[in-house]
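## retry 2 of 3
previous attempt timed out at serialization; input unchanged, resubmitting
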Amino acid sequence: MISVVLLASEDLPGLAAQMAMLVPAAVDGLVKEVIVVGQSAPGVEALVEDSGARLVSLEGDAAACFAAGAAAARGDWVLTLRAAPALREGWREPVEKHLAGGGGTAAALAAPGGLFARPLHGVLVRRLDWPASGGGDERALAKVLKARRLAY
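## retry succeeded, writing output
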């Protein structure tokens, strides 16, 4: 159902933690695939291979990497993520409710925290609605798509 596009990172523990948070959702069928995009490095390659994710090797900024990952995605929806901030327990509930309600519009998944301290985890967008212009990084993509905020 969801293809997760995860930026490759030199923060291997953070990348591994982010991928670990996706495992239960993959087992339950919410996450169809994980696509790691970015510069290929031995640690990243090993993590991708061990996890069953796919690697799209690309040198470029976040916008180019997210666009390349979305182009490689097979799921109906794409969720953009970075190694940090890592998803926390409870992230699935607002995503599942959004999709169950017909989804429709894009959504920005916001991390838990105080009123003014909600870092953006990523953007959930229908693959077919990915902007032809590439969309930019997460904040620009959310703005272009007029994404609804999903806080958890």
